[in-house]
Design brief:
There is one protein chain. The chain has 238 residues and is α/β, with parallel strands linked by helices. The protein has 8 helices and 7 strands, in the order ααααβαβαββαβαββ. Strands 3-2-1-4-5-7-6 form a 7-stranded mixed beta sheet, with helices on both faces. The longest helix has 16 residues. It is globular, with a radius of gyration of 18 Å. The termini are far apart.
C-alpha cells in the first residue's frame, strides 16, 4: 500500500477543494468532483474537518477501492457511491458521539472507526473484527495515513476484555444482539451507539427499555435518500 498524506490541499471558496492527486490510484479523474462532494457534505453536516483531514478521508476511500478485491472489503465499487454510502454516512454520526475512548465492534473495513479516527485525532479508537484480512487492511491503512490513535484488533468481541466510554457498531442487524455483546465492554457511565438504517421497532425498544435510557436520533446524510438513525443507549442507574 502506498499513499502520502504530506501533500497539502487548498480551497478556492467555501464548499470546494482542490486536492493534490499525488498518492491516489483509483479515484483518478473523479478526484476533483469527489473532493467537492465531500467538502459540501462536511459543510452541510456542520463538521469542523480540516482540508488535510478531508484529503486523508479521500485517501482512505482510494485505498479501500484499490484493495477491495484482495481483502473483500465492500460490495460497492463505484467511487461516488462508496463516498456517500461509506464515508459521508459515517461522518453523519460524529457530532452525536459522546466523548471518550471508542470501540467499534464488527468494524469490517474500518467503518466508522477509521472515519472517526481521521476526524477526531484526540480520540483513541479501537477497531475490532474477527476477520483477520480486514484487520490487516486497517493496520496497513492506519500506518499509511498516520493514524496514531487507531488500534486495530482481530478478535471476537466475546474474547476482548478492555472497556470503553463509547461502543459503536454499523454491522449488527439486531439492536438486541448488539447490546448483548457490547454491554460487557462498556465503561461506567458509557454509551452504546448503534448505526441503523430504519429506526428500531417498538418491540425492540420494549425489550431493552427496562435497563437503558434510549435515544433515537434521525440522521440526515447528504446525498443519501435512504433512512439512517443513530440509537444511543446509556444504562439506567439502579
Amino acid at each position: 500500500m502506498s499513499a502520502s498524506t504530506n501533500q497539502s490541499s487548498s480551497s478556492t471558496h467555501k464548499g470546494e477543494l482542490h486536492i493534490d492527486p499525488t498518492g491516489f490510484v483509483k479515484l483518478g479523474s473523479q478526484l476533483p468532483a469527489l473532493a467537492n462532494t465531500l467538502a459540501k457534505a462536511i459543510n452541510d453536516l456542520g463538521l469542523s474537518v480540516s482540508e488535510t483531514q478531508q484529503r486523508t478521508l479521500l485517501l482512505y476511500l482510494d485505498q479501500l477501492l484499490l484493495w477491495n478485491k484482495a481483502y473483500n472489503l465492500t460490495a460497492i465499487t463505484n467511487p461516488e457511491e462508496a463516498l456517500i454510502k461509506h464515508v459521508i454516512d459515517c461522518l453523519a454520526v460524529i457530532t452525536h458521539l459522546p466523548p471518550g475512548t471508542l470501540l467499534d465492534i464488527g468494524t469490517g473495513a474500518g467503518l466508522p472507526a477509521v472515519i472517526i479516527a481521521i476526524c477526531q485525532p484526540e480520540r483513541q479508537c479501537t477497531a475490532l473484527d474477527s476477520n483477520q484480512k480486514k484487520i490487516r487492511f486497517i493496520k496497513q491503512i492506519s500506518s499509511e495515513l498516520g493514524l496514531h490513535n487507531m488500534q486495530p484488533i482481530a478478535s471476537r468481541v466475546e474474547a476482548h476484555e478492555a472497556s470503553y466510554d463509547v461502543v459503536t457498531s454499523r454491522a449488527f442487524a439486531s439492536l438486541i444482539d448488539f447490546v448483548e455483546v457490547a454491554e460487557p465492554r462498556l465503561a461506567d457511565n458509557g454509551f452504546l451507539c448503534a448505526m441503523k438504517g430504519k429506526a428500531p421497532s417498538d418491540e425492540e425498544l420494549r425489550a431493552l427499555d427496562g435497563s437503558w435510557h434510549i435515544k433515537t436520533i434521525k440522521l440526515k446524510v447528504p446525498r443519501l435518500q435512504d433512512s439512517r438513525h443513530l440509537i444511543e443507549l446509556s444504562a439506567k442507574n439502579v
